[in-house]
């Protein structure tokens, strides 16, 4: 969740400031709001509602996420992985909805590549995104999206999990390099009881 801020600081050629963190988090807030609107619009269009009615439905999650006190305060004042992961979460759901309703091979491959990048971004932002990926994987498996023959099924499942595995591998390498595995294990033991 801090890598985008680090990259912004590198581009600006200065140290990260609270204003930079706040600005990035508010940008994430705005982008998440827009993606939630697109997600709702697409979902209601799939229900065969008229474009105007779908647009009205899309306003509700946008207004709620933009103006409810908790997201508004947290994005402005308390940037952490909880806020950073909201955009990839919403974007992943939007891309999944688009995949369900796209039949063109080229479009599907492009959307699958986009979702792989989003999945990497989500898992790299917050490890709990693994559960989002697991739910989407279960839905795809139940829908038969991986096929029914064992070898192609395994190949597609492996391809689906590759971005999350790469992100977790990079994180594990980082922990190993810093000698922090024991610290993480002790936190887990403390919180797990």
Structure notes:
The protein is mainly alpha-helical and 193 residues long. The protein is built from 10 helices and no strands. It has helices at 3-12, 18-46, 51-67, 69-77, 81-84, 86-100, 105-125, 129-143, 150-178, 181-192. The longest helix has 29 residues, at 18-46. The mean pLDDT is 90.
Rg from C-alpha positions? 19 Å
Sketch the topology as an H/E string, one letter per element: HHHHHHHHHH
What general outline do the C-alpha atoms trace? globular
Class derived from helix and strand content? mainly alpha
Strand content is under 5%
Mean pLDDT comes to 90
Task: Give me the count of strands.
Answer: 0
Low-confidence stretches: none
State the end-to-end CA separation: 27 Å
How many H/I helices?
10
Largest sheet data? none
**What proportion of the residues is helical, as a percent range?**
over 70%
Which helices and strands appear, and what pairs or packs with what?
Elements: H1 3-12, H2 18-46, H3 51-67, H4 69-77, H5 81-84, H6 86-100, H7 105-125, H8 129-143, H9 150-178, H10 181-192
Name its key features.
single chain; 193 residues; mainly alpha; 83% helix; globular
Summarize the structure.
This protein has helices spanning 3-12, 18-46, 51-67, 69-77, 81-84, 86-100, 105-125, 129-143, 150-178, 181-192.
């Amino acid at each position: 969740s801090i890598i985008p801020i680090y990259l912004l600081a590198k581009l600006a050629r200065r140290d990260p400031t609270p204003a930079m963190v706040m600005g990035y988090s508010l940008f994430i807030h705005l982008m998440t709001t827009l993606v939630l609107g697109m997600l709702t619009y697409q979902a209601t269009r799939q229900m065969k509602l008229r474009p105007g009615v779908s647009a009205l439905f899309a306003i509700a999650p946008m207004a709620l996420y933009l103006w409810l006190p908790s997201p508004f305060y947290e994005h402005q004042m308390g940037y952490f992985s909880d806020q950073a992961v909201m955009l990839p979460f919403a974007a992943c759901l939007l891309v999944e909805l688009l995949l369900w309703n796209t039949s063109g091979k080229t479009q599907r491959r492009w959307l699958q590549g986009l979702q792989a990048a989003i999945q990497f971004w989500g898992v790299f932002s917050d490890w709990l995104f693994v559960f989002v990926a697991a739910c989407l994987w279960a839905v795809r498996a139940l829908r038969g999206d991986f096929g029914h023959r064992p070898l192609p099924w395994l190949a597609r499942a492996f391809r689906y999990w590759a971005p999350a595995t790469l992100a977790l591998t990079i994180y594990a390498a980082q922990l190993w390099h810093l000698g922090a595995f024991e610290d993480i294990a002790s936190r887990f033991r403390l919180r797990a009881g």
